[in-house]
Every structure is written in C-alpha cells, then in structure tokens.
Amino acid sequence: MPRAKSNGIELEYDTFGSEGDRPLLLIMGLGAQMLQWDERFCEALAARGQFVIRFDNRDVGLSTKFDHEGVPDLAKLMQPGADRSGVPYTLDDMADDAAGLLGALGLASAHVFGASMGGMIAQTVAYRHAAKTRSLISLYSSTGNPKLPPAKPEAMAVLMAPRPSDRAGAIEAAVRASQVTSGPGYPLDPEYLRERHTRMFDRSFTPVAGARHLAAVTAHGNRAPRLAAITAPTLVIHGTADPLVPVEGGRDTARSIPGAELWEIEGLGHGIPPALWTALADRVAAHTAKAEARRQ
User: Fold this and answer.
1) Which residues sit opposite 260 in a β-bridge?
2) What is the tens place of the pLDDT at every residue in 21-54?
C-alpha cells in the first residue's frame, strides 16, 4: 500500500474505484486500522460511483507512530477540570492529517465519512476545512457533549481492558470486544471477526495507541457549539442498540449540525456488519450523489 506525507507525518492509505468518481474519504475510529473498513464494503461503495480512500490514522497501522509520547494518564485526564493541554495530539491534529491527505492525493475536496472517533474527526474536518468537505457522513459518533449518556458499563470495560500481548490472546480479546459492542440486531460471525482481527494483528499491533487516541478525544471537549458552523450536507447514522456510543450521541450530532439528516438503525450496535453493507452503501451513495448535484 502507498504512503503519503501529510501534516508533518506519513499516512498509509489505499483506494478503490475510479479516480474520476466522487471522492469519498473514510476515517476509522479509536485504535483501529483502516482494515476495519472491510475491502468488500469499500468495493460496494466504489461500485456506486465513488472513489474510495481509506487510511491508517496516526499512531495505528502503518502510519507514523507516537510511541515517544508515552502512555497518557487517562484517569487524570477524565477528571472534571483536568489540564488536558499536554496530550500528545488532539482531534484537530488528526483532522488536519485527513485534510492534508486529500491535498497529497491531488484532491481539492471530498465527501468525508467517519466512524466512531473517525466521525468526530470527520466532523472536525467539516468545520476546520469546510472548503475540502463536499459532504459529511458521521457514523455511530457523538459531539463530546458531557450531558449525553455514557457508554454502557460492559462496553466501557471492553474499551478500557488491557490487551493481551500474545498473538492468540490479543486476537481473541478483540473478537470478544467486537461481539460485546455489535448489538442484538446484527450478531457477528466469530470466524469472520477472527479472520479480520488476525489480519490486523499480523499487520500491526499497537495497543497503546488507543490510549493516546482516547486522550485526543477527551481533550477535544464538547464539539456541539462548533458543529453549528458546518455547512456541508450531513448524514448522521446511528444504531439504536449501540452500547459504546449510545444513540443519543447521534441525535445530538444531528441536532447540532444545521440541516443534518438522521438515520437510526434498529438493533445496530457499534460496528459495520456485513448484513448492513448493501443498505449502508446505498444510503451513503445517495447522500454523496445528492450533495454532488447541489454543487453543480
């Protein structure tokens, strides 16, 4: 896979589809490699007239690592009134990474589709780099509003649990985490999950990156007031059974962005299950095509 220089670092990326189609930038979530965007889902998006770009966020996969920054004290950072100025980086930096990648690829703008923390980054791209954002899709994400319900205890336990360092243990822990957060309406095949997580472990195992990502999220605070500045056509997608980012996060995102459309998916948790790929690809393609028509 190729690499591009962006915002002073290097980002690993790959693409699907024709460069002449509608550009669609995919941004994945906390501690997750770009492989979490399944190749078959990317191909489904590309088959609907989109030039799909996925990439590893900083600190994960094969992009530039920040191990020299050490492990942040998350318990301290999450205390009310904590000084968060010393975090290794923020979502602003990660949004600038994404915007810089577009420039490195010779793209003046793109439709920006983010999942979970990637949705937070995508939101940030939309108001920090409005001219680069043709439309916004925010999937099972939130605004950072402290008044919203927190993650369910079982989901937070999965998120915060130390990852085993041995290959077999790390893969099985990742499989269990995906099952806990998937939601009752879209159960995931353990063998499918095991294959995916095995590929990701063998490609790059960076468990500490998740802590630095979470520090970036914590330091960013409440984006809701800033989201009011977004002018890009916006689609917010959220599962009603998401235990990690409860559906109220999606509702608050849609309320905060002028004219945003909200699509709630009954029984969906925190993930992109194969059973949903066709419907999701159809809805995203319809959104980007409509936004593109508005630009003409």
Assistant:
1) none
2) 999 999 999 999 999 999 999 999 999 999 999 9
Closest by CA to 59, choosing from 260, 190, 214, is 214
Name the DSSP class of 163.
P
Structural domains of the chain in order of their starting residue, each with its CATH number: 3-148+208-295 (3.40.50.1820)
CB atoms near residue 271 (< 10 Å): 22
What's the token pair of residue 164? 């085993």
Distance CA 286, CA 292 (A): 10
Beta strand pairing call for 261-265 and 9-16: unpaired
Give the angle 265-148-132 at the CA atoms, nearest 5°.
70
What is the C-alpha separation between 53 and 41, in angstroms, rounded? 12
Give me the pLDDT at residue 165, please: 87
Q: Residue 8 in 3-state DSSP?
A: coil
2 close to 89: Cβ distance less than 8 angstroms:
no
Q: Yes or no: say if 109 and 118 are a contact pair by the CB < 8 Å rule.
A: no
Quickly count: other Cβ atoms within 10 Å of residue 184's Cβ.
10
For 24, the token pair is 């669609």
In what helix (H) or strand (E) does residue 135 lie, and over which residues does it extend? strand 133-139
- The helix/strand/coil state of 243 is coil
Q: How many percent of the chain have pLDDT more than 90? A: 89
Residue 111: closest CA among 52, 32, 58, 57: 52
Contact present, 277 and 41 (Cβ < 8 Å): yes
Query: Per the confidence metrics, is the pTM higher than 0.90?
Result: yes
Contact 266, 238 (CB under 8 A): no
Are 204 and 62 contacting, i.e. CB atoms less than 8 angstroms apart? yes
133-139 vs 234-239, strand pairing mode = parallel
